[in-house]
Amino acid sequence: MSYLGPEGVLAKKQAYFVPCVNHFYQNPPEFVRGEMQYLFDSTGKQYLDFFAGVSVMNCGHSNPAIIEPMIQQLQQLQHVCNIYLTENGVNLAEKLAEVTPGKLKRTFFVNSGTEANEGALLAASLHTGKHEFIALDLGLHGRTQLTMSLTGIGMWRTTDVPNGGIHFARNPYYFRDGEGLSQEAFEDQCVADVARILARRTSRVAAMILEPIQGNGGIITPTPHYFKKLKALLEEHEILLIVDEVQTGFARTGKMFAIEHFGIEPDILTMAKALGNGQPIGAYITTDEIAASFTRPSASTLGGNPVSAAAGLAVLDYIASADLCQRATTLGKLLRTGLERLQKKHPVMADIRGLGLMQGVELIKEGKPAADLTDRVLEKMKDRGILVGKNGEMRNVLAMQPPLVITEEDIAHFLQNLDEVLQEEA
Ligand code: PMP
């Protein structure tokens, strides 16, 4: 096939993909190569990646430590049906039991975050015999009917009406909604909103699902107080807690899983994205007790196949050997301090939130969410060879989620460019 170039790729995408595709940029670059924290487009231009494909490439692009075991596995054995025995999947499940919090022990492998959540919801229903769920405003859980219905961001849904039996509780968005209250007092109100739902529906609700830090919702970061109170309430009503770590997992926030910052243990934890560092794999992990309710035969054809599981094993090894949790903590602090320094100069940086190398900056101009400014910042940063993300209900939150292999120099380079771009826009 002849070389298409960015315009050709875009034209084919527009002609042959279902038209729900979303682009950040007016002229999206066409990428042809990746190397750790860098990407290269079809013109040879280098970009510093500060988005990591939405928290996927935590171990860096085409990191030899991740891809070599995958290549070896591809050459040796790519796939057999899971009615036979292979080693990588069971070894990965054993390691996941070690690195996940609390009593989480039994894994079900799938191919994506959506499927991991769908599986977790099913496991919760099988265990409790109940079929209703609670989710948070501005959460995002996937693209299937049920997970999309549990998604609380308008732009990521295809209808405004959730499926029956789904209840939304107020999300702990302190910056937007907490005026006049301490963060803890505001979070008490958010937990009280869950109690309001439970007062009517306890006998029907199987589980509550939430992200520890809402990613697409705008890096909404509650305190441990919120999670402790919420978990106590759910336990009182015997409602399971599903924690969606699809975007926050695998050292992103400075701990293997973000929920570890908040002092509670989930009943089911879901993961995908960074588990495969670019290779499709997802999973949910739960306790012996909950897993015991799922005994009928079921398995995903390609879930946890030898190549994907080789990727997962390599990711866990690399997180440990390169000390990525510590790296995300140290570099995250550096980034955060730098952002706070810029905030003093640029009042549009209205709120900075997040943990480790998952940081968001909410841009507000003249009291309003500054979506157009956010777009211009993204575009100008891209022209300067830096990729940054955006999210939030009003599309006005800059999202910084780089590969965890970035360096102090990369952070300084990023901050300097952000400073200059905001200066130009002032
Ligand atoms: N949960 C969260 C928190 C996510 O961020 C995403 C994807 N952005 C999903 C679930 C869905 O994952 P996937 O695209 O792998 O199905």
From TrEMBL:
List all membrane-crossing ranges: none
Protein keywords = Aminotransferase, Pyridoxal phosphate, Transferase, Transit peptide
Enzyme Commission no? 2.6.1.44
Q: Which InterPro entries does the record associate with it?
A: Aminotrans_3 (IPR005814), Aminotrans_3_PPA_site (IPR049704), PyrdxlP-dep_Trfase (IPR015424), PyrdxlP-dep_Trfase_major (IPR015421), PyrdxlP-dep_Trfase_small (IPR015422)
Q: Which GO terms describe its molecular function?
A: alanine-glyoxylate transaminase activity; pyridoxal phosphate binding
Name the domain of life: Bacteria
PROSITE patterns recorded for this chain?
AA_TRANSFER_CLASS_3
**Quaternary structure annotation from Swiss-Prot or TrEMBL:** Homotetramer.
**Name of this chain's protein:** alanine--glyoxylate transaminase
Q: Which organism is it from?
A: Enterococcus canis
